[in-house]
Specification:
The structure holds 2 protein chains of 2 kinds.
Chain A lengths: L5 H6 L1 E7 L2 E6 L14 H20 L6 E11 L8 E10 L3 E9 L6 E12 L2
Chain B lengths: L2 H10 L5 H10 L2 H5 L2 E5 L3 E6 L6 E3 L4 E2 L2 H19 L5 E10 L9 E10 L3 E9 L8 E9 L5
Antiparallel strand pairs in B: 1-2, 2-6, 3-4, 5-8, 6-7, 7-8
The chains are: A alpha+beta, B alpha+beta.
Chain lengths: ~130, ~150
Amino acid sequence: MIALPPYADLLGLRRDGERDGMPVLAMAFGRQVLGRPGFLHGGAISGLLEMAAFAALRTALGEEGEVRIKPVNITVDFMRGGRELPTQAVGHVSRLGKRIANVEAIAWQENPDVPIAAARMNMLLVRG
Amino acid sequence: MSDSDHFSSAIQAGGFEPTQLVEMARMHGHSGKIGIRYDGHGEDWVELSFDWHEKLVGDPATATIASGPIITLMDMASSLSIWVRSGRYIPQVTLDLRVDYLRPARPHHTVHGRCECYRMTRSIAFVRGQAHDGDPQDPLAHVAGTFMFLDDPA
């Protein structure tokens, strides 16, 4: 079980099962994630995607508990406006190297095949 | 007044005045939850900031804040920089935002983010910016983003 940090609580994130072996995170709708009226804040969506990417990488690292993860960068594509609905996200580790991991994440509402946003991250791994 | 009415009045008060919009957002949505406030603006840039707080922590071992609040800060400063450059509110959406995390933000330090809109076409606005936690010469994040207008700017 991977612990979520305080920032995940601020976003109202909770675990919501898994897809393809990776943890799904769910973000409830509420004022704490609202941007312009009627839509989610892009920053809240990005925060959710980042947490899903971290959770996927932690899962992929498995027993290697001593690895520190440092985010190098993130690129977020916003595909659809996030409406006043719960949002889910899951990460996928596309490459797990010795020093760098490439991780992707998608976020959706209602239908996983209709993503509202996607992120790519490069993460630096510091072992030992 | 509904949120929507507050939003409309904040953006229609003659030209574009970011102060009121940020103050309104402080009381409502996600940026308010993070504690984002207005620092200043120029012809094509806006600077916002937020204080370190334990609820923003992403790594409890080091008390470093998560990167999510930094994205929120820069996304908002980016949007506002487009409206101050154009002098009016134009409905827009973020197409993409890239953030390079140059170093961790130091615990207990206020994070400042300044973004500028350096190019605007009929459909797209291009923005860039940096965040720091005290010394602008020692940035902690660099941002590049593109936004799409929902209506063509005049």
